[in-house]
Structures are given as structure tokens and as C-alpha cells.
């Protein structure tokens, strides 16, 4: 017969193992990958108020700008220049507490100059309900192709209201990459069959916060609750790298040719085999809608879509996930085992970067 202590050893061993795994996850999950080599700007060097200047707050050193939403209005900023291709980035901290119905957006557009045939690249955060994972989407329009939106939606693997994280848009003549920190989450490679659907006209860079109660969270079921106002989105580490142009003339100088070539030679302009593993990990675990797999909407996938069997098996014909877990239920309902496995997986991928 075994003593009570001997009988408890397997349980103690299991607890010790789980504690070690948990410790590894905590210490490595949030270890930053190698940062991009970029130059950050002050607000005055890079942006101007777009609307509701009274809801825009600049830090004393002018390197952080806070955009507020309250009952009076949302707010927004716009880059002081237009760019013909570029790398645009900001470290953003989302509003905290109850943020359902609120959209925080970081995007490029030229709709103010090309109203009927504008281009646009979007990163939009879709508000949040406490206890659930934050959701966000990326989208692309070219030459006014608003009826052919190319949106993908994802769940965050962290709480973006706790700390600032870097969100970036790379736009070159040959490819577009969306980044969260240094992890590429989506790449669009230019295809000749896309024609004008590939953004090609000079664009400004925008950051906004606004009330989107009608659609942003749970299809509009969750509205903005102004008892928690003001809602504050903080932007810092502002990066605008590209060729400054006149959007009307669109006469590209040799300097723009040189700038585009230099941009395409940067480390963030290529998805390497190592970072592609991270992108695949992210998309398989956290993407919950893709237009490329929405065969009801697009019986023939748009030409830039690269259909991966590992992704296709995740989705129904509506482009939505087969599994409720992939759709992103409450974080509280997930088991400890699933959380630990996801954390370990992320640790492995970030360690490889």
C-alpha cells in the first residue's frame, strides 16, 4: 500500500508541470520580437486635426496624441501629406472598460480627392464587451471598388486596452502587408488580374474614433454606453515613411522611384519563411471571416486570393468558421488547457522571429 503522500505525488507532479508551463507562457508570450528599424515623428511633423479638434489631446512632448469619443463627438487626425506607397505605423492603446459600438480606425485613403474611385487600406477595431476577445478587421479597396470589399476579421490574442501595440500598413507597388507588432497577419500580392482593384493612387493616413453602434459590435446589438465616457484611444510612435506627392498632379519624380525601391528593400516589406509561420499561426487560430472563402459572395474567389487547404477547411461557404471556438466565444468559457496551448504556440512562433 502507498502512503497518502505517495498517492498524491502524481497530482503534485502534474501541478508542478502546469505551473512551469504557465510560467514559461507568462515570461515568453509577451517578449517583443525584433523591432522594425523606423524613425518616429512628433504629431506636428506628421499629422493635423481632421475633425473635432476639441477632442484631440497632444502630450507635452508632442509624441503622443489621444483621440476622444464622448456624447458630443468622436475625433480624428490626418497625415499632413499624401504618399505614393509607404510604411505607416502607430503604437495604439485602445479605450478601456466597456467599449461596445466604438470603432477605432487606422487607415489610408484618398476619398477626399477621388470621391468616386478612391483607394483605401483599413485596420479597424470593432469595440469590445468585457470577458470577450477584442475583434478587428482589415480591408482593401481599389479604384472605388466598394462593392468588392476584401475584408478579413480576427480576434486578438491579447487585450489591446492594457498596453500599446504597434499596428502597421505596408503598401508597395507589388504587395500590401498588415502587421500587428512585428507579426504579419495578412499579405496581398499584386496580381495583374486585379487591375484597378489594387490601390495605386496617392493616399493620406488617418486615425479616428467614432460611434458605430449600428454595426460594430455583435452586428449592432451592443451599443455605445456613454456612462463610461470619455473613450480614449492613444496613438504614439508615429511612422510615415514613403514618397510625398501632390495627389492631383500624380507626376512621380525619380525620387519616388528611388523611394519605392528603398521601401521594397526594407525588412518589413517581405514575409520571410520565419514570419510566414507566425502569420499562418495567427490566421489559423484567430481569423474568423475571410472573403476569400466566402463562396456565396464570391463563387469565383477574387484573383489575389491564395486558397490554402489548411485555411479553407476552417470555414463554411459563408466565409465564417465551422467551429464556435474559432468564431471567438467568451474568453472565460475557454478551458485552461486551451489557453495554455495557445500561449505556448505563440511563444514558439515569437521565439522563431
**So how many helices?**
7
| Residues in helices, as a percent range | 10-25%
What's the CATH class label of the domain at 33-269? Mainly Beta
Strand order of the largest sheet: 1-4-13-6-7-8-9-15
What separation lies between the terminal Cα atoms?
51 Å
Subcellular location: Secreted, Cell wall; Secreted, Extracellular space, Apoplast
Pfam families: Glyco_hydro_16, XET_C
GO cellular component, one term: apoplast
Family: Belongs to the glycosyl hydrolase 16 family.
Task: Outline the structure in words.
This protein has 353 residues and is of the alpha+beta class. The protein has a domain at 33-269: Jelly Rolls (Sandwich), CATH 2.60.120.200. It has seven helices and 15 strands. A hairpin with a 5-residue loop joins strand 2 and strand 3. The longest helix is centred in the N-terminal third of the chain and has 26 residues, at 4-29. The termini are far apart. Belongs to the glycosyl hydrolase 16 family. One of its GO terms (molecular function) is hydrolase activity, hydrolyzing O-glycosyl compounds. It is an enzyme of class 2 (transferase).
Q: Short description, anyone?
A:
Helix 1 (4-29) packs across helix 7 (336-352) and helix 4 (273-286) runs antiparallel to helix 7.
Topology:
Layout: H1 4-29, H2 43-46, E1 47-51, E2 56-58, E3 64-69, E4 75-79, E5 82-93, E6 102-109, E7 120-125, E8 135-141, E9 152-155, E10 165-171, E11 175-180, E12 183-189, E13 204-211, E14 231-245, H3 254-264, H4 273-286, E15 287-290, H5 309-312, H6 324-327, H7 336-352
Antiparallel strand pairs: 1-4, 2-3, 3-14, 4-13, 5-10, 5-14, 6-7, 6-13, 7-8, 8-9, 9-15, 10-11, 11-12
Helix pairs in contact: 1-7, 4-7
Amino acid at each position: 500500500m502507498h502512503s497518502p503522500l505517495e498517492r498524491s505525488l502524481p497530482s503534485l507532479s502534474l501541478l508542478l508541470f502546469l505551473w512551469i508551463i504557465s510560467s514559461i507562457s507568462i515570461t515568453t508570450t509577451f517578449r517583443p520580437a525584433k523591432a522594425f528599424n523606423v524613425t518616429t515623428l512628433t504629431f506636428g511633423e506628421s499629422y493635423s486635426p481632421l475633425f473635432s479638434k476639441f477632442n484631440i489631446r497632444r502630450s507635452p512632448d508632442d509624441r503622443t496624441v489621444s483621440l476622444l469619443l464622448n456624447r458630443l463627438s468622436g475625433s480624428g487626425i490626418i497625415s499632413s501629406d499624401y504618399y505614393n506607397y509607404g510604411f505607416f505605423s502607430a503604437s495604439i492603446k485602445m479605450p478601456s472598460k466597456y467599449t461596445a459600438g466604438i470603432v477605432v480606425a487606422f487607415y489610408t485613403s484618398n476619398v477626399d480627392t477621388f470621391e468616386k474611385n478612391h483607394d483605401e487600406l483599413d485596420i479597424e477595431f470593432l469595440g469590445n464587451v468585457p470577458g470577450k476577445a477584442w475583434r478587428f478587421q482589415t480591408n482593401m479597396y481599389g479604384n472605388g471598388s466598394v462593392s468588392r470589399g476584401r475584408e478579413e476579421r480576427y480576434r486578438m490574442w491579447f487585450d489591446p486596452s492594457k498596453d500599446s501595440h504597434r499596428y502597421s500598413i505596408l503598401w508597395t507597388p507589388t504587395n500590401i502587408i498588415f502587421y500587428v507588432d512585428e507579426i504579419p497577419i495578412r499579405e496581398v500580392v499584386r496580381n495583374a488580374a486585379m487591375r484597378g482593384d489594387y490601390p495605386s493612387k496617392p493616399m493620406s493616413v488617418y486615425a479616428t474614433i467614432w460611434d458605430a453602434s449600428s454595426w460594430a459590435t455583435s452586428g449592432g446589438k451592443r451599443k455605445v454606453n456613454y456612462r463610461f465616457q470619455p473613450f480614449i484611444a492613444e496613438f504614439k510612435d508615429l511612422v510615415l515613411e514613403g514618397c510625398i506627392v501632390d495627389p492631383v498632379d500624380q507626376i512621380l519624380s525619380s525620387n519616388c522611384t528611388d523611394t519605392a525601391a528603398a521601401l521594397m528593400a526594407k525588412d518589413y516589406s517581405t514575409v520571410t519563411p520565419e514570419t510566414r509561420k507566425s502569420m499562418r499561426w495567427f490566421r489559423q487560430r484567430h481569423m474568423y471571416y475571410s472573403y476569400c472563402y466566402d463562396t456565396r459572395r464570391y463563387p469565383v474567389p477574387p484573383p489575389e486570393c491564395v486558397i490554402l487547404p489548411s485555411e479553407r477547411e476552417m470555414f463554411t461557404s459563408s466565409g465564417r468558421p465551422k467551429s464556435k471556438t474559432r468564431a471567438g466565444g467568451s474568453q472565460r468559457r475557454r478551458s485552461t488547457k486551451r489557453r495554455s496551448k495557445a500561449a505556448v504556440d505563440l511563444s514558439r512562433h515569437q521565439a522563431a522571429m
